[in-house]
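Lecture notes, part 5. Sequence design as translation. It can be helpful to think of inverse folding as translation between two languages: the language of shapes and the language of residues. The source text, in structure tokens, appears below.
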């Protein structure tokens, strides 16, 4: 497993998911329509908190029917021990595998307190949560597909397994980044390059927006500016500074 330093995490956190997604696109490590949870699946329940960044701790849950065997709380203790052994910052990622996800909420006031105490940075689930105000109070970021008044029979059926939320396959330990725009998966191999590449993209956007707001705007100047960036309006994709391109081409040690 490739490790990502705290310094790199701190550099990525304030960038924003849109710029990070643009930066990842330049690495050509996946298709442009992959690597993020599709729109309409999750809602950011804690928009006032700082962006969520951390490593996925995955599990699958159900809420329609009671557990077939065992005690819910005994199983939770096993989950807590597993969670405590994972690297921080941790993001709990729960896939609700019921036919109609969101009937019951696993996360409410008590589990918010427990998972915050266990060093979790946030929750991502296509299922339901409740006691939404407690997430903000604890500083625990929350993205969920639903809100439910009841826990119903919510219980963990397994953990430490790949899960799929909104078309995104998430494996244990995957680096996730979320804000009001959504949740994106960051390839750890390219994580150190993201701050520099994002800065270049941000500067190009700034110059374009500045020109569009200027009284000297013209189509000709817009075309000249985009050509200076290394691409034409009719073309798609983002073209990097040659120095950054060379960094991407360096063989892995």
């Amino acid at each position: 497993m490739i490790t990502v330093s705290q310094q790199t995490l701190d550099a990525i956190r304030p960038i924003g998911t849109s710029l990070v997604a643009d930066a990842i696109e330049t690495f050509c490590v996946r298709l442009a329509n992959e690597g993020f949870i599709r729109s309409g699946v999750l809602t950011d329940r804690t928009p006032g908190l700082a962006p969520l960044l951390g490593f996925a701790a995955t599990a699958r849950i159900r809420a329609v029917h009671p557990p077939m065997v065992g005690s819910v709380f005994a199983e939770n203790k096993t989950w807590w021990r597993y969670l405590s052994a994972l690297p921080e910052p941790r993001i709990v990622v729960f896939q609700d595998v019921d036919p109609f996800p969101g009937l019951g909420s696993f996360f409410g006031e008590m589990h918010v307190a427990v998972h915050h105490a266990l060093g979790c940075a946030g929750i991502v689930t296509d299922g339901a949560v409740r006691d939404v105000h407690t997430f903000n109070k604890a500083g625990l970021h929350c993205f969920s597909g639903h809100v439910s008044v009841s826990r119903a029979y919510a219980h963990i059926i397994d953990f430490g397994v790949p899960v799929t939320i909104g078309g995104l396959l998430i494996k244990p330990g995957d680096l996730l980044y979320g804000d009001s725009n959504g949740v994106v998966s960051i390839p750890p191999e390219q994580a150190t390059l993201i701050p520099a590449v994002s800065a270049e993209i941000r500067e190009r956007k700034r110059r374009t927006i500045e020109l569009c707001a200027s009284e000297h705007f013209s189509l000709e100047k817009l075309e000249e500016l985009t050509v200076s960036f290394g691409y034409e309006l009719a073309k798609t994709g983002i073209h990097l500074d040659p120095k950054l391109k060379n960094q991407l081409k360096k063989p892995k040690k």
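The translated text above is only one of many valid answers, since several sequences can fold into similar shapes. The radius of gyration is 21 Å.
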